[in-house]
Amino acid sequence: MKSVVGYFDDEFALLHATEEARKAGLIIVDAFTPYAVHGLDKAMGLRRSRLTFVCFAAAMTGATFALSLQIYTSSVAWPINVGGKPFISWPAFIPVAFELTVLFAALISAFTFFGRSKLFPGKRQVALPRVTDDRFALVLQSDGDAAGALLRAAHAVDVEELDAQGGAKS
Fold first, then answer.
1. What is the pLDDT of residues 136-154, one digit of tens each?
2. So what's the pLDDT on residue 152?
3. Do the domain assignments include residue 167?
4. In Å, how far from its chain's centre is CA 96?
5. What range defines the domain where residue 73 resides?
């Protein structure tokens, strides 16, 4: 399988080409844009992210861990009666519980994102040097010349093939 990259000058041409590629049944590898393009995720057929559920579960785990640790240490492991205060004093537990809730949610969400996206140190990524602050690119996977023809029909400024290592073919 080869990859074909189409470069566009504006987001509307990119959106049109993406929709046409999906209709034609081509595999969309990725789209590169200098800023967020409204509707591109739907045009690419991407599902809604489930990272919010991971973040919520991680936050609840952090809060449960914090409260469990504080309840255990203040009432079982080291009970100290200070001025008649009860052993399980909820107002005193809130700051630590909040901090661990945020810590668990942030770290676990970040690690889940990097793991799910396969973004790790040393990974070779396709580099498109011509995609800067003024270009849009759509990368399609195709066996024949169907992808190149579709990109040209969608008014791509330039179309190029990528080899297996992600470099442009000469």
1. 999 998 877 889 999 999 9
2. 92
3. no
4. 29
5. 51-116
Same domain, 62 and 92: yes
Q: Using CB atoms within 10 Å of the CB of residue 48, give its burial: 0 to 12 exposed, 13 to 18 middle, 19+ buried.
A: exposed
Domain-located, residue 55 = yes
The distance from CA 1 to its chain's CA centroid, rounded to whole angstroms, is 25
Query: Cβ(39)–Cβ(11) under 8 Å?
Result: no
pLDDT averaged over the chain? 89
**What is the pTM for the complete model shown?**
0.71
Q: How many domains does the chain have?
A: 2
Q: What are phi and psi of 74, to 5 degrees?
A: -85, -20
Q: Is residue 157 part of a domain?
A: yes
Within this chain, do residues 105 and 140 fall inside the same structural domain, yes or no? no
**Angstrom distance (rounded) from CA 106 to CA 100:** 10
